[in-house]
Amino acid sequence: MKLWRNKFVLLGVFLSVTGAGTVFLWRVASRVQAPTVPSKNVIKDTPEHESKELAVQLQKKPGHTPILMRMAELELDQGKLDDAAGHLREVLQNEPGNADAHLELGRILYQKNDWNAAIAETQKALAINPKHVDALYNLGAIYANGGDTERARSLWRSAMTADPKSDSAQRARESLSKLSKAPGSH
């Protein structure tokens, strides 16, 4: 009997030591964290940083339209209308048939309250692409703001026909609706 009792005692000690060791290892392992991936030194693009990068690219590719268009967009976002217009004019020197550059220049000229020049640039965009929905909408808005609601209506109807599912066609629908509800409208 003594032999069996010693075996049970030894078995109990073995299980206790093994269990305690397991608990110890589990606790140690739970404290150890997975190695972290070193963070990369990422520079977040700011408009200033992007402008500098674009200027470097422009030196390598002078007159490159996508670079100039993006630079104009960044300048416009920062309220630098003259700088943005300068980039667009450079695009138009190289590509006089760029309807989007005419459209964007028209928008800037409108913001600068040069409505006649804005109309002229937007009309150039339409001469290049008569179904340019954004140009149709914008020109309609210029005329509506100037009090020529008949021209505005005509242009907005054309915008809705040119690309019925576009955002500009939707804005044209909304603008036509507002004109119809306005006092003294036809």
Provide an overview of this structure:
Helix 3 packs antiparallel against helix 4 and helix 8 (149-162) runs antiparallel to helix 9 (167-181). The protein starts with a helix and ends in a 5-residue tail after the last helix. 75% of the residues lie in helices and 0% in strands. It contains 9 helices and no strands. Among the domains are: 46-114, Alpha Horseshoe (Serine Threonine Protein Phosphatase 5, Tetratricopeptide repeat); 130-186, no CATH class. The protein is mainly alpha-helical and 186 residues long.
Helix and strand arrangement:
Blueprint: H1 2-31, H2 47-60, H3 65-77, H4 81-94, H5 99-111, H6 115-128, H7 133-145, H8 149-162, H9 167-181
Helix pairs in contact: 2-3, 3-4, 4-5, 5-6, 6-7, 7-8, 7-9, 8-9
User: In total, how many beta strands?
Assistant: 0
Q: For the report, how would you describe the main beta sheet?
A: none
Overall form: extended
Helix content: over 70%
Tell me the distance between the termini. 114 Å
- Could you tell me the CATH topology label of the domain at 46-114: Serine Threonine Protein Phosphatase 5, Tetratricopeptide repeat
Determine the number of helices (DSSP H or I, runs of at least 4 residues). 9
**From the coordinates shown, what is the CATH architecture of the domain at 46-114?**
Alpha Horseshoe
In terms of quaternary structure, the protein is: single chain
Low-confidence stretches: 32-43
Q: Radius of gyration over alpha carbons?
A: 35 Å
